[in-house]
Amino acid sequence: MISRSFRLLGTLAAGEAPDADDAAMALIALNAMKRAWFGTLIGPRLSPIGLSGASGQAENGGEYMIPGGAAFTLAAPAGPRAGSRFGAVDATLGFGANSLTITHPGRLMNGSAAPYVVATPGRNTRWWYRGDTGNWVLEADYATLNDATEFPDSVVAYMPYMLCVAMAAEFSAELTSEVLAGALEGRAVLVRMYGRRGRAGLDGPIGLPPATG
Fold first, then answer.
1. Distance CA 72, CA 112 (A)
2. What's the domain range around 166?
3. CA 148, 150, 156, 162 torsion-angle sign
4. Is 201 a domain residue?
5. Using CA atoms, how far apart are residues 188 and 98, in angstroms rounded to an integer?
6. 3-class DSSP state for residue 143?
7. What is d(CA 135, CA 191) in angstroms, rounded to the nearest whole number?
């Protein structure tokens, strides 16, 4: 993906690979671009919500402050739609002694049907729902250039164009009309597939803009 972006920018010839420094800078840009999608192109912005007791039910758009003093079980949003989001925050930095277990009946979480356990102090997590695979996906940076992307092929096809826009100024490159068109179409695809919805909101009819809230 990064090599293709450099070729689209005209800074890399076909068959060549970017040098280590350029690849590292591009990875930083890719992670920043992806982080910016959440709450804008993918799902709602998250609102902080306090909890008490030993268990709770998450909803689309909530970021839950997990209390300390005992282990806690948080259920992922029921009946999620593509692009649904929620998060969990270690409000007391106590996950090491009192772990968080996230349940997700009938769905996957990072590809697993087992409950997701967080037992590292201060480890906060955010999740988005990929409807075509029935999978809650952890919102996280790509740590290396060899990490697999979590998006479907219909999104991956546009990511090099979108990355070009993010990198152009840093690499003093001019954007062609084809690259700009590809980036805009990529944004439209993301909104159509995972667009922002209000908490517990439903999908609108295909062809209409997603509801906000």
1. 20
2. 2-38+144-194
3. negative
4. no
5. 42
6. coil
7. 18
CB 37 within 8 A of CB 53: no
**Strands 55-57, 72-75: parallel, antiparallel or unpaired by DSSP?**
parallel
Which regions of the chain does DSSP assign to beta strands (E)?
47-50, 55-57, 62-66, 72-75, 85-90, 100-103, 108-109, 116-118, 125-130, 135-138
Phi then psi dihedrals of residue 186, to 5 deg: -60, -40
pLDDT of residue 14: 82
The token pair that represents 53 in the structure block: 């007791």
Strands 47-50 and 108-109: unpaired
Q: Single out the residue of 68, 49, 72, 67 nearest to residue 59, CA to CA.
A: 49
Average pLDDT over residues 48-62: 97
Co-location of 21 and 85 in the same domain: no
pLDDT in tens, 100-159: 999 999 999 999 999 999 999 999 999 999 999 999 999 999 999 999 999 999 999 999
One domain, residues 134 and 150: no
Helices (H), the chain: 2-9, 20-37, 153-156, 159-167, 177-194
Question: pLDDT band at 15, cuts 50/70/90?
Answer: confident
- pTM assigned to the model: 0.87
* SS3 label, residue 194: helix
Closest CA to 84 of 75, 76, 92: 76
